[in-house]
Amino acid sequence: MASFRDLLKATKDQIREVDTAEADELRKRPGAIALDVREPDEYEQGALPDALHIPRGTLETSIEGRVPDHDTPLVVYCAGGTRSAFAAKSLEELGYTDVVSVVGGFNRWKDEDRDWKVPATLTPEQRNRYKRHILLPEVGEKGQQTLLESKVLLLGAGGLGSPAALYLAAAGVGTIGIIDMDVVDDSNLQRQILHNVDRIGERKVDSAKKTLTLLNPDVNVVTYDVRLGADNVMEILDGFDVIVDGTDNFPTRFLVNDASVKLGIPVVHGSIFRFEGMITVFDPKNGPTYRDMVPEPPPADLAPSCAEAGVLGVLPGIVGSIQAVETIKLLLGLGDSLSGRMLAYDSLEQSFREYKVRVDPTNEITYENRDRIVVAELDDLCAPLPLQAPPA
């Protein structure tokens, strides 16, 4: 009967092993992944930068969900090089074509003073709270950590902001900013589910913070009880990863567009009217923006507000929830965003329609012109100020 040493030697004869110097070079190849197969307590004490962690015991059942492309270069390591050798053999048997095991493992890596770091990890309580996210290979623990480190600004704590804020907070988005200068009124409660009858008369941002903090104490809720204007929009928006637009007037939408384009921040836009809603993503670095879709606001008589025309109370729940989905996709780099597409929802027909949104070649408010954009208060026509002259 073969001993463990015999089995280990036979395994190493069938795989490719590399020393730490070569491993350091291989992990830097485009698309390469450093795969850590140690136990969670080992990984939490230190790991290679950007390593993918899959414990050896769950490698065969997890790897194809985490690394679907079998041609991905994999640099596999453990503490000393034994578990990684068996892991490399299993990976080759599963069809992975470019696998190496690191001789000496992480212990030798540290002894040679190579680059490593203590990874950000979830607490046991967080692993339990976000378990359904972690089970998704496309999210996993790394994706959940990304959400906890993300910052999202919601423009409004009303009909659209309410469901978006609730789901983003529940999902574990670490910092949620909310700007709104209104107070809770009993007429809001038909659709604005962040608030309740005990909060009537309170500032909306304060009410929203109470609700979200009770829902998820992981979330830092930053409130802005101010009017959004040219004097503060750049300062407020700067530093956020995504903006969720729930505004209901054209001057604010255009103002946010100009500031977000200048800062290069994507905007998840939503709007509602009577029984209909629409959602799209304006990503200034990768697609059309609000000024491409709406060069100028329509006449007031063709665009009455919800306060004038009414809105089905459930409608913002659907539109705001889709905004939350698009926000999470942007934060995690998942799927196809609605950039360049407008999703229109009709609750009476119970139908969705999709329309193309294209870049307007005459629109000068672009990310390429960001250094020349002037963010200013806008009149009823919402026309931007002329671009600044380029530096001499």
Biggest sheet, open or closed, and with what strands and sense? 8 strands, mixed
The shape, in one word, is: elongated
- What's the helical proportion of residues? 25-40%
Note the run of SSEs as H and E. Answer: HEHEHEHEHEHHHHEHEHEHEHEEHHHEE
Mean model confidence by pLDDT: 94
Distance between the termini: 81 Å
Query: What is the overall number of helices?
Result: 16
Strand composition percent: 15-25%
Strand count: 13
The strands making up the biggest β-sheet line up spatially as: 8-7-6-9-10-11-12-13
> Spans of 5+ residues with little confidence (pLDDT < 50)?
none
Could you say which structural class the secondary elements and strand pairing correspond to? alpha/beta
**What is the CA-atom radius of gyration, in angstroms?**
25 Å
Q: What does the model show?
A:
There is one protein chain. This protein has 392 residues and is α/β, with parallel strands linked by helices. Helix 5 links the parallel strand 4 and strand 5. Helix 10 packs parallel to helix 11 and helix 10 crosses helix 16. The protein has 16 helices and 13 strands. Helices cover 35% and strands 16% of the residues.
Structure characteristics:
single chain; 392 residues; alpha/beta; eight-stranded mixed β-sheet; five-stranded parallel β-sheet; 16 helices
